[in-house]
Amino acid sequence: MPVQTSRRPQSLEPGSPGRVPPIIPTQPGPGGRGPGGGNKRTKRKDPLWAKLTVIFGAVLMMTSGLAIVGSKAVIGQATSSIDQGNLLGDAGKTNAEGGNSLDGPIDMLLLGVDARQRWAADDVRSDTIIILHIPASHDQAYLISIPRDTEARIPAFEKSGYRGGTDKINAAFFHGAQNGGGWEGGAQLMAKTIKSMTGISFDGAAIINFGGFKNVIDALGTVRICVSHEVKSHHMSMVDGKPMWNADAKKTGKSYTPVVHKKGCREMEGWEALDYARQRYGLPNSDYDRQQNQQQLIKAMAKKATDKGMLTNPIKLNSLIKAAGKAFILDTGGVPIADFIFTLKGVSGNDLVTLRTNGGTYSPNADHSKESLNELSMDMFRAVKNDKLADFVVANPNVLSTRK
């Protein structure tokens, strides 16, 4: 069905009221300009499938990796293996907020879960929580991570029988998944919690399973990651030169050594890149460093997906499509995926901006049992809701992530 276009005003010409100004990089770089620079940025035209990788690439940590060239019909066929569900419940945008029209700003909730085969389906928490914001101009994409330990008032949720309470925000997914709520219930309660906390309603959502996500990276080959602080893995060890989960390594009865991520930049395979992005213990800023490392991984995957070698190798393209179909559950708010992609055709990998809450450092609540979002972070979420995020970032450049 065609995308509805009547509920929100379309973006205006540069300089017109309501137009979101382009973000000004803090440092000059290829395709960018520093403060005071006078050269207009030249946008590199990425193929359509690569744009999908950027957006649903952000779909966790996050990339769908879908490699598609062609019409909406081709995209629809290629994305048919992606599981779709109702992940938003009543946290989706109302008619007054634009409903399922994609003419205005677009906000997606991206949730990463680390579900393993030996765990029960309802015994899962979402430790990766990212808001993807695309302004009405549809020429930029912003990622904002919410700390997993943030204190939150989690609303009552009839579907799972949860009566409501105060807990760490990552527990919202767990409470929503109980008593048959499943992952859809977990995502719905998480979306409801974030909407109550920030006022942001969503156009779509995605749940990414880390296990499936590894296969997407493997289909890409490797990704270039820069390790800023050496860290010992809290999850994986090496046995006979092969990486294994710690619990599985112990069962072998063989000697094993923890995986250590050494400082420096290098190409990483899927298991290594994901393991590094999972780490928070042993890092100076704990979960905040992990958030930035996850955002770095998103950008690295988007960059690798646009590599010319991916465009010319049909085997790699097909493996990406298959891996992506098993990696996540998607909710586009009732809008066909093909329409969603074409709406975002103006966004390229170079337009992905990563932001951090609380200045990238731990911000305890009153009794130090959980975290709280400081006033600057709440102002940032209000800027998202009002589609003024670019103005906010220009005025508060310290919210920009320091990871490259």
UniProtKB/TrEMBL annotation:
Spans traversing the lipid bilayer: 48-70
Domain of life: Bacteria
Skewed-composition ranges (Gly residues): 29-39
Keyword annotations from UniProtKB, A to Z: Membrane, Transmembrane, Transmembrane helix
Organism: Micromonospora chersina
Recorded family membership: Belongs to the LytR/CpsA/Psr (LCP) family.
Domain Cell envelope-related transcriptional attenuator: 125-305
Positions of the UniProt region annotated as Disordered: 1-44
Bias (Pro residues): 19-28
Entry keyword Transmembrane helix: yes
Protein name: Transcriptional attenuator, LytR family
Keyword Chaperone included in the entry's annotation: no
